[in-house]
Automatic annotation (TrEMBL):
Subcellular locations according to the entry: Cytoplasm
InterPro entries tied to this protein: 4pyrrol_Mease, 4pyrrol_Methylase_sf, 4pyrrole_Mease_sub1, 4pyrrole_Mease_sub2, rRNA_ssu_MeTfrase_I, SAM_MeTrfase_RsmI_CS
Protein's name according to its UniProt entry: Ribosomal RNA small subunit methyltransferase I
Residues in Tetrapyrrole methylase domain copies: 24-222
UniProt EC number: 2.1.1.198
Enzyme's top EC category: transferase
Gene3D superfamilies reported in the protein's UniProt record: Cobalt-precorrin-4 Transmethylase, Domain 1, Methyltransferase, Cobalt-precorrin-4 Transmethylase, Domain 2
The reaction(s) this protein catalyses: cytidine(1402) in 16S rRNA + S-adenosyl-L-methionine = 2'-O-methylcytidine(1402) in 16S rRNA + S-adenosyl-L-homocysteine + H(+)
Keywords: Cytoplasm, Methyltransferase, rRNA processing, S-adenosyl-L-methionine, Transferase
An annotated Gene Ontology molecular function: rRNA (cytosine-2'-O-)-methyltransferase activity
Top-rank taxon, per record: Bacteria
Gene, per the UniProt record: rsmI
Amino acid sequence: MTISCQSSFQNNNNTHKQESTGSLFLVATPIGNLEDMTYRAVRTLQECDIIAAEDTRQTRKLLSHFEITPSMLFSYHEHNKAASGPELIRYIIEGKNLALVSDAGLPAISDPGADLVALAIGHGIPVIPIPGANAALSALIASGLPTTTFTFIGFLPRERKDIRAVLSPLRSAQGTILFYESPHRVVKTLAHLHEAFGNRRIVLARELTKRYEEFLRGTIEECTDWLAEHPPLGEYVIVVEGESKEDAEMAESAWWRQLSIEEHVAHYEAADMPRKEAMKKAASDRGVSKRDIYNTLLDKAEQ
Ligand code: SAM
């Protein structure tokens, strides 16, 4: 294992150059409400030599609102990241400070920013987060669902089998689960969540920080019915409650369901339980009489 330690000397001028190499600044931008732009984000964008943006048209609007004139505005998105990433890294190595922004919120969350960060770290470039708005965490904190442990998934894949592969291991996750979704797919996604998790409690957080911000709290079925009456509009975060203690206990106590009666009894015998005791325990797990267990084992032995 190679250990690396990056310590950034942070003073009032956060884009202050100490070395000949520049730094990569990950600058959060608002997810709707422009007042969520931080002072530090504005200053960083003003001071950086280059701004790399997912959608340069969108970013120009933001920059013009805050009267920021970028020296260089580069496009960096999913479809050009293979070529654009190394080029941006070359600029940083030459000594330029680069600010990466996404269309909204934190860069590197559900966008290709994480690839640029990995590339920068691979070249020993300091990576400096400039925190701010984020849709998933804003939805989570206002959801009313537990916030102690949570899993962020972002967008689900498109193919049914890939969706299942993501969702099935989450069935027994006890923390809250967070998804991103567009208005066009939200109803379909609720159907996938229902199939995977059953009728759990969810919160649909829509248009966060914007004029028509809305939190819809209910079960998956209730929210689906609501969307049938009120067609989805705007961007969504879907917040799903984790597996309840009761469901977890039920799943735990039903571990034997996949076993035959023979296997069930053998399981206890393998744990050094006398046969009579093992039969009694299997009968009690299954809610049947000891005689039923005995008769089944007898039938099997006679076959
Ligand atoms: N980087 C962003 C962040 O930090 O939250 C997320 C970008 S991701 C490409 C876009 C998705 O985030 C949207 O499809 C939606 O699910 C969610 N999102 C963004 N803005 C939102 C808002 N104002 N309200 C609800 N969800 C939002």
